């Protein structure tokens, strides 16, 4: 079994989705793994990961609007506001999405659908540098 691991840093500009599919594809290609599994892991509690459509940017806009409505900043329900009114909502949004994604690899390529991309979903208002670990294992 062959394995390879790499950490990338994704700089955000505040709330939004940042696609990093190309970086993941390049990592898998360079790993030499032909058949296996890529695990993508976000090392944060106020950002998350999504596999989502990458053909129409309106999808990203609508997802952000949906989460803004579902979990609004500054809701008086939250006690945890140590880092501002977007702090606890960011944690809730991360809990509702995912911090780890597994993507099959075949013939040295990610088995993503034609319109699927891998995204970091930043839930905080301010820019952050987010750590994402890529780990591929297989033959």
Order of helices and strands: EEHEEHHEEEE
Q: What fraction strand?
A: 35-45%
Counting DSSP H or I runs of 4 or more residues, the number of helices is 3
Helix coverage percent of residues? 25-40%
Largest sheet: 5 strands, antiparallel
| Structural class by sheet pairing and helices | alpha+beta
Overall CATH class: Mainly Beta
**CATH domain fold name:** Jelly Rolls
What is the distance, rounded to the nearest whole angstrom, between the alpha carbons of the first and last residues?
5 Å
Tell the overall outline.
elongated
The number of domains is 1
**Radius of gyration, rounded?**
16 Å
Average pLDDT confidence is 97
CATH architecture field: Sandwich
Low-confidence segments: none
Strand segment count: 8
Order of strands, main sheet, comes to: 1-8-3-5-6
- Specify the oligomeric state: single chain
Could you give me the name of the CATH homologous superfamily? YjbQ-like
Fold blueprint:
Layout: E1 2-11, E2 16-19, H1 21-31, E3 36-42, E4 47-53, H2 57-70, H3 87-96, E5 100-106, E6 109-110, E7 116-122, E8 129-138
Antiparallel strand pairs: 1-8, 2-7, 3-5, 3-8, 4-7, 5-6
Quick recap of the structure?
By secondary structure, the chain is of the alpha+beta class. The chain contains three helices and eight strands.
If you had to describe this structure to a student in words, what would you say it looks like?
The chain is of the alpha+beta class and 139 residues long. The chain has one domain: YjbQ-like (Jelly Rolls, Sandwich), CATH 2.60.120.460. The chain contains 3 helices and 8 strands, in the order ββαββααββββ. The strands form 2 sheets. The protein has a 5-stranded antiparallel β-sheet, with helices on one face. Strands 2-7-4 form a 3-stranded antiparallel β-sheet, with helices on both faces. Strand 5 and strand 6 form a beta hairpin. It is elongated and about 50 Å long. The model has no long low-confidence stretch (mean pLDDT 97).
